[in-house]
Amino acid sequence: MKPPILIACCLVVLLASCRTTPTNPAEEHAFAPVRAVLETNCVHCHGDNRLSTMPPINDTHALTKLVGTSWIVPGKPEVSRFFQVVIFPDTVPGAMPPSGHAISPREVGILREWIKVGAKVPAHNMTLHPKGPLPRSI
Fold first, then answer.
1. Are 130 and 58 in contact (CB under 8 A)?
2. What is the CA angle 32-47-23, rounded to 5?
3. b/e code 11-38 from CB counts within 10 Å (16+ = b)
4. 75 vs 34, 37, 67, 80, 117, CA distance in Å?
């Protein structure tokens, strides 16, 4: 092989190995309200420093693994464990976030609607970062 052809072949292989799933602005826009709820209320505890017994919600690929299980049943928020724990009153063990204040009715509505319409998550991985103060005491 001539050097320019060899360089071109190496470049193609290198670029192919670095390829990521392209972003889809429509997916990101549709998921943005859900992302905001998760980052404000969930990722503090269910992020990178979570206990091993806690389901991970530190990025959208981890969240995708919960969709289609008993955690998040697409189309059925009321039977999704993920949704049930955010609507439990503070007095019920397992209420999330665990103590202090529940998520707002507006945020509950965002999660309910997201699950009701299929719990779609962007195809490319998006890291979720905790936002604001801890939602409840840990």
1. no
2. 35
3. eeeeeeeeeeeeeeeebeeebebbbebb
4. 15, 19, 11, 9, 6
The whole-model pTM stands at 0.77
The tens digit of pLDDT for each residue in 9-52 reads 444 444 444 444 556 788 888 999 999 999 988 888 888 777 77
Cross-strand partners of 67: 72
The alpha-helical segments, DSSP class H, found in 19-124 are 25-41, 43-46, 60-66, 81-87, 105-116
What's the token pair of residue 25?
């602005």
Could you read off the pLDDT of 121-132 as tens digits, one per residue?
999 999 999 887
Cβ atoms within 10 Å, residue 82: 22
